[in-house]
Amino acid sequence: MSTTEQTSTPNNDLSKIRHWMQLIVVIFTFLIGLRHTLPGESSKGGAFDAFCPFGAIETLWAYLTTGHTLKTTNLLNFTVLLAVLGVSLVAGRAFCGWMCPLGTLQDMFTGWARRGSGEKSRRRGKKSQARFPIQVPEKLDRWLRYVKYGVLIAILVASTMAVYPPLRDICPARAIFAFDWNTPLLGVVLVLFILTSMLIQRFSCKYLCPMGAVLAIFNKVSFIHIRYLPENCTNCGRCEAECPVDIPAIPENSRSTECILCLECVETCAQPDAIELRIR
Question: Alpha-carbon distance 174 to 210, whole Å?
Fold first, then answer.
């Protein structure tokens, strides 16, 4: 390893901060779920679903029309959602790349898949030689990314007639963090979540997550964003190799609605000032 590769940089520090934040949020979410498995209603403090930001979107219609939230949700959902939207206004879909516990677990499962399918060591900016995760063909990938918007619309429609949040019985977060394996359907959801995460990097984020669909527009208006300077770029492809959500045409497409602001492209860039984190 060269001296340049060994030297710590501010970008390296940002990456470390991100990984620590991801870990802390995952542990905190597990503790919330564990709390709700303890006996006695007083220890639970409401349903696990009440801590989900998307729960506010699911229960919004019911609250506006009846003054009551859907079962297992409450006003805490709106507080959590407002916090997530505040983060998104400042930093786009950074919630997905820094704080979403399901996103963190997908990254973890992808890492397992790489190590289990032939990756012994890998240099940053180089495509992995492991068999998994696989790359979805570009044309298919482009169409699949619209599925999450269809999922969002379907949930919004279903929520107008629902008693419980429409996602409740098919939510991987409940299966993983709330230790809810009481129904065969949630067991199937858990297995599929793990397998798809190992097969295709950030599968749920790219193709299924309705929360990601809600936050996508913030990438176009956020104060913090990634800036591309074409005059300094050599088109080496390092940033494309590192992008966990496989955004096409990086770095030109750095304002993509798919960007989760993970900063992998910024960290791996070998060209000074070709791509950088900016506050406008």
Answer: 16
